[in-house]
Write a structure and sequence with these properties.
homodimer; alpha/beta; 7-stranded mixed β-sheet
Chain lengths: ~675, ~675
Amino acid sequence: MARSFVLGILLTLIAFRPGTRQSVPSTLNLMPVPRVLSLGEGRLRLDSSFTVALTGYHDARLGRAVVRVMDRLSRRTALTFSPSPVPDSSAHLVIAAAAAGQAIQTETEDESYTLDVEPARAALTAPTVVGALRGLETLLQLVASDSAGFYLPAVHVEDAPRFPWRGLLVDAGRHFEPVEVIERTLDGMAEVKLNVLHWHLSDDQGFRVESLRYPLLQGKGSDGLFYTQAQIRAVVAYARDRGIRVVPEFDMPGHATSWFVGYPRYASGTGPYAIVRTWGVFDPTFDPTRESVYLFIDRFIGEMAALFPDPYWHIGGDEVNGVEWDANPRIRAFRRLHHLADNAALQVYFNQRLSRILTQHGKRMVGWDEILNPDLPATAVVQSWRGVEYLPATVRSGHRAILSAPYYLDHMDSAEDHYYFDPLPDTLGLSPEEAARVLGGEACMWGEHVGPETIDSRIWPRLAAVAEKLWSPASVRDVHDMYRRLAATSLRLGEVGLRHQEHSARLLHLEVGNGPDFQTMMALLAVSQPVTFGQRNRMEEGMTQQTPLTRLVDAARPDPPARWASLTLIERLLADSGRTPAIADTLRAMFTAWRGLPAAVHAAAVRAPLAGDGVPVADALGRVAAVGFAALDRVQGRTPATVAWQDSARATLDSATGPHGLLRLVVVDPVRWLVEVAPIRQ
Amino acid sequence: MARSFVLGILLTLIAFRPGTRQSVPSTLNLMPVPRVLSLGEGRLRLDSSFTVALTGYHDARLGRAVVRVMDRLSRRTALTFSPSPVPDSSAHLVIAAAAAGQAIQTETEDESYTLDVEPARAALTAPTVVGALRGLETLLQLVASDSAGFYLPAVHVEDAPRFPWRGLLVDAGRHFEPVEVIERTLDGMAEVKLNVLHWHLSDDQGFRVESLRYPLLQGKGSDGLFYTQAQIRAVVAYARDRGIRVVPEFDMPGHATSWFVGYPRYASGTGPYAIVRTWGVFDPTFDPTRESVYLFIDRFIGEMAALFPDPYWHIGGDEVNGVEWDANPRIRAFRRLHHLADNAALQVYFNQRLSRILTQHGKRMVGWDEILNPDLPATAVVQSWRGVEYLPATVRSGHRAILSAPYYLDHMDSAEDHYYFDPLPDTLGLSPEEAARVLGGEACMWGEHVGPETIDSRIWPRLAAVAEKLWSPASVRDVHDMYRRLAATSLRLGEVGLRHQEHSARLLHLEVGNGPDFQTMMALLAVSQPVTFGQRNRMEEGMTQQTPLTRLVDAARPDPPARWASLTLIERLLADSGRTPAIADTLRAMFTAWRGLPAAVHAAAVRAPLAGDGVPVADALGRVAAVGFAALDRVQGRTPATVAWQDSARATLDSATGPHGLLRLVVVDPVRWLVEVAPIRQ
């Protein structure tokens, strides 16, 4: 995410220039937007007589999905429906799937569906059960209400995904995430039609799967925080029920310290090894020169292959620093003997061995883009994390590709930032065959700075914006409409138990209580967000795996709604040239509230130590408020704007975004906009 | 809970009369209040160097408890401590337990402890690990903060419980509660020093335990919602780690329909049987005349005894309506043959057989107070649910007793209501031996109207008030101080994952979104509470086990803080005779906010159908606000009060509490108080 600050501002200004807003066909509150959507006439009313019939192929998976859907519909509407599907062709919703879909879902699964809602009934048809699952989520997203109650609007939807691989990486290695977190994440993914959980299960900081064959892996490498085999099976089944594949990642040969705590003999160094508590790139690396290593890996993968049915297997392969390889005379000798020019070549050798093992177990290799090499087996899929620019090299070399670089949720970028990046922009200049090798993308939720209590707030709702880039046609790219639908989507995601909506309140209750300080800090977090991943890494000295994630930065959310809302307010002010006094009044009220926060936050910090982290950002907000008042006066012509004032205001704002400690202000850009458009007296 | 409305008002007025407030020794934010508490001089500062040493007996249970406590302390303070206890006598906290405590905890376990905090170090000593667990919770409750950070105040605490049996009944029969709900409930119970989870595991509406011997129990009686034996073992271990016993209840001979879905041959009727979906007393009853029934029960208890190590076994025994017994000629003949005068006598016969079976399995019987009978085995413990008046009869007959009647959380009474009832009031006139037979009490969370998403909000924080009645000396009864500490306790309970604090927000986000309607409905729920259990049973026609618990009444919380806060405000107004204008100003601002709510709620109901339930209670609030303004004018002497005005105001208020649909206003009493004290012009 290398977009410069200045570019960001320019894009913001362009996006908001009145009159340039893209004309958007009706998208209702659907997210991702379907391929074809047309509104009909009338409404299908929902009441307790609402029934569902399965008239086509149906199986237990579809049956359970219908029960879940009816349960969500019931909870949302407080209507009590008949608890199970009825075999009644006069039902209000008729679901006709043609077939089960693949026994083991792959990237070639047909996920298409057609949904027709008419005032008397709705019909969902799909070639597979997975397509029907996607259509059922669309149906739930269509539910609306008016003064007469709940209804489905008449629509015709024809839908299918743009990309077949639409994933989320969850890093359970650095901070363990309990099964209930994984399961509610899967529910959320299903809501926005994602289909791959990329489960990062081992890293320097933890080995998270129970091995019966090599019990010291979890026994010494996990602090007791690992998934049992029964839990793995349950998660895989839970995911399949929702049309989601589970691709495990066991990172090797690097990022592998936790393996060696119990089994130091497979490492390239001499050990002993201990679980790593900090973040970064570490030396411990598998020894690619020993046959015993490959035997170990073969047996391990053999055991795990019984748990993870997906045809793909992620080997990691990233950030191998070569320190242990260079330090080991036997490995240096091996490199010479085999004419391996460097450590990259040695890693290719390792990957070729690994690839053969995977093939024997019926698995296809996926790895991070460091594995790309002329000698990489053609079947390997390469996941680009270092930049979009790695994508063309991958597909031109004949490999298939998954794009992650612009979709790192841990970077704490805005939904807009992610949404800006098309996974397959024309600018790449790919041929149709090359473009077809781009399977899709994955958002990445790396675990350094998130734990079970914060992960929902870091994944959601921003992941929905990424999901849309991967499902919807490339033409769906209006940011205004995205944010409108994201707000509705965010609420719906709460239905399946995700906790992002109440996240800040929950942590602030613990940090500052529930008196006036709570309101103060809620107001501050409404306009603040965490610093970027890199900033936090640099600034939070001594942070380890044991550092509690209960500071103010943890209570804050990336891209809080007030960012977009305040930009929109400025846009409205400028669009009607100040003819509507209510808009300026709203802005003044907003600035007034900001102006009052520094004193309130200072006072809160005296009573509640954890509020202290908010003092610098509150002080900055006070300065932004002062500039806001001055700029508004000048935009409205009450006070003449001068170049000197504008320079001073810019300087104030330049420093206001932050970081201020571990927080950044999100409302500097709208005020900057006011400053820039104020007419200067020559 | 038979306190009349008028009595309630009088008590309120008395409790609030200035000058009569009881003088309370410093209780800090401790809940329950310890037996002896004296403040020392100075503060023990908490920073990342804080260490713990175990110098006495210690075992894995105590070790895990210390890890949990340090983790909670770390999350609360955002300090990173050394992750495990250090064997260092110079530690900041020295824990010295003398012994492990009972291998299977009973009501005779020693739970006492002594805690001394001095500026340089703290010492916790206890005769058992369980006592140390109690002391650790006190330690966590002592943590406070000032502008320099977190600290423990210097104190001397000597503590032990007033009653040895302090429980919570959780009804998993009517609505299933997943293991994570049970576990976080246990964490909350440990925080307030409760020691018995009474787990109601079977009822007409569901059989919730996996039996391997009789798999049709859960197979046909649970809708698939049951605890596996592995889960039961995990919960029992989780509870033991926290010094909490698990007493299972398998209700018999009545409340037993779910048993008979799979095994109709043990019932008194002819069947077939189906899981009951509604609430009340139903006919299906074990057949007490068949030997096969006792063989079945014997084998079942034999299987379950391996899962539940507690020496007590709750047989239920309540609400046997005798319909099946009267209808069955063979049972009538059996009654005559054995000279059993009536069905009560037949139930005694059943209980005697059951008692012998329990004895053979090493279990002592507990039952609801219907089981009390001259022929009841002397070892049986009787749990009084129908009224305090059943308690004396129990203990005078030589049985031991547990009191639950005043502590029914599902009744939706206030914490104050529960707190008002001493478990062993002098007025009972018991001898010391009789009084000693009162083992304690249990709060009851019956499951008709609660599910996993609402149960936290129904149990907490009110249970903490009941817990205090059972732990603290009888002299601890100041309601003002209780509510002050309850607020702090409620926040701390959020630390272990309980969701009551954010409950209304979470459900309202789903019901009305997160725009202005959310603020409107939050304001309404701040002054509203659910109707009583009986009212909801009568008014929500057609409610079943499948009815979604997502209406406005479910988002509301019993006894919201605004009730006590508004009473306190009126008290302060009257205490200083209106000399502080700010108090009256605050009241006027409060009434102004109330006055605005009806229009806002009406508007919300148009947009969000589930907000519609709030319209009647909002309208009533508007009327209360009008009375409030008028009464305040009269109390302040701005307008003369007349008898006619007062009569009219009283009439308005009499109808304002409600119920209004499924909601009641909680802020009528404070306004009534203003009306009553307004000086009448003669």
